[in-house]
Amino acid sequence: MTAISHVYNYTVRCPQVKDPAHPTTWQNHVEFNQSCEIGLNRITKWHDRSGHRIFEQDGFTVREADSESSYFAMQNSRLLNNGHVLVTFKIFMDDSTKDTSVQEIMQYLIKDYQHRLEKLNEQAIA
């Protein structure tokens, strides 16, 4: 029997641009943490309110929440040392970021996640 050995949570808050002289992008608002409580809270919430499927990206099913302007995905991955990683993604959108691509954000987050998995597997081999 194996257990979840790592929890990764990504949150992206697409900013409301208040000062056009100092533009910001979603890349400035990527949050990463390893809180089990956040991961479990998200799973529980999303299980109760699963939203509706928008697209699939690299094996992740991305859903749009019914009750808020956000998108989410989650998955687990097995590590070489028989551990497991639980990863959750949540992307908050607002009216001023309608031109922002949720798919582009997911591509970026998935790439970062895959890089972290590679590092964990390299540590398992060493």
How does this structure look, described?
It comes from Shewanella colwelliana (Alteromonas colwelliana). This is Cytoplasmic protein. The structure is a single chain. This protein has 126 residues and is an alpha+beta fold. Helices cover 29% and strands 34% of the residues. Strand 3 and strand 4 form a beta hairpin. The chain is globular and about 50 Å long. The mean pLDDT is 87.
Secondary structure tally: strands: 6
Rg measurement, Å:
16 Å
Major pleated sheet: 6 strands, mixed
For the termini, the CA-CA separation is: 23 Å
Class by alpha and beta content: alpha+beta
Helix content: 25-40%
Protein name: Cytoplasmic protein
Organism: Shewanella colwelliana (Alteromonas colwelliana)
Provide a quick synopsis of the model.
The chain is α+β, with helices and mostly antiparallel strands and 126 residues long.
